[in-house]
Predict the structure.
Amino acid sequence: MIAPSVSLFEDLFSLEVEKPLGSKAEETCDVHVCLASTVQQGEEALAFRMMNLSEKLTDKFREKIHNFLRSYGKTWASSGRIIYPYQVDSKPQEHEVEYLRSDAEGYQFIKKQMLPLQAYQDFLSFQDDDKTFINNLRFYVIVVKPLSNPQEMIYFYRFYNRKQLLSQSRFFGAIFRATNEYDLIEEPTLLFDDNIDCISRGDDLFILKKENFHSIFRFLEEIEKSVNTALTSIQTQLVRGKIPIEGYDNFANDCKKHRVKMTMLNNIAKKSYLKDLTPAKMQRVIDRLGKDVLGDDFITTFEKEHKLLYDTKHPWVLLKLLNDSYLWSDMTLLGYDVNEKREL
């Protein structure tokens, strides 16, 4: 269901982070910034640290959120942006936003990573001499409590790593000193930009930059962990439909060496059509595709044994077939090999 998520997302554009009180003074919302690190590669839990911000820097982060939401809201209204349900293998265009709920089946690992942020006040303070934490930085979060509802916390995520430290980047900095000359900046310096990769409100998550979203929540690592389950599910359902994979072991081993293939496998395993496949349904697809797409060996194996051949010389054919990547147009009467599709 997308309609509620659209209104929830559009409501962000009018988020009240500051409000004039008089000619000079203004009321401002609470803003805090937390850094997240994996600390050690492969660890399940993230480590968080709170940045102790001066009033001026707090104002800067508040300004960043204010400007980002106003700018994004104007673009949203003028360019016909669209919200779609999240699909792991989709490639959103610039005007498309994807949405998911972290409490939905298959996404609890995201919720697990977000959960500690509810108690951000208890985080230890970030120390610039914590080399292990810095070397494994993954993202930072701007926590905003809007003036209209101070009890609500909205989280703005941005991918971040140690290269955002001036000392670790390819740049060096100069600062004007009281000695009336420029000097090399040697103090530990963190660099920030104006971008946001995703936003969460409760269990609702809006994805603005998909590649960074995957990095923030270690999506690809999760896919690697679940690929065996996906493979077993696919083969089990095909066996029940009496169309097993010939060369299954080679198929499984080859797919586990390729992240794009693993992503496709996880996507296929979740599809409802898999359990309804039969030799008769598959025969219709094979007849339409023919040997030019599938190859002679694939067609011969199916006709003789009702098995789906995995041919190592053509490693993508079976995966694309199971992914329903071969589509036809009634308008043009042409077939297409599609890299991305969304259900209407």
